[in-house]
Amino acid sequence: MKRSRIGFGVIAMAAAGALVLTSCSSSDNGDKGEGTATGGGIISVNITEPQKGLIPADTTEVGGGKVVDALWEGLVYYDADGQTQMGVAESIELNDDGLWEVKLRDDAVFSDGTPVLAKNFVDAWNYAANPANALGNQTFFADIAGFSEADDKEAMEGLVVVDDHTFTIDATPDFADRLGYSAYYPLPDVAFEDMEAFGQNPIGNGLYKLDGDNAWKHDVELNLVKNDTYVGPREVANDGLHMKVYASLDAAYTDLEAGNLDVLDQIPDTAFDVFQDTLGDRAVFQGGALLTTLTISENLEHFEGEEGKLRRAALSMAIDRDELIDVIFNGTNIAATDFTSPVVDGYTDKLKGAEKLKFNADEAKKLWAEADEISPFEGSIEVATNSDGPHQVWIEAVANQWNQNLGVESAPKLYPTFPAFLDDREQDTVGGPFRAGWQGDYPGAYNYLYPLYATGSSSNHGFYANPEFDKLLKEGVEATDHDETVKKFHEAQEILLEDLPSIPLWYQGTTGGWSESVDNVTFGWNSVPIFNEITKK
Question: pTM higher than 0.70, yes or no?
Answer without folding.
Answer: yes
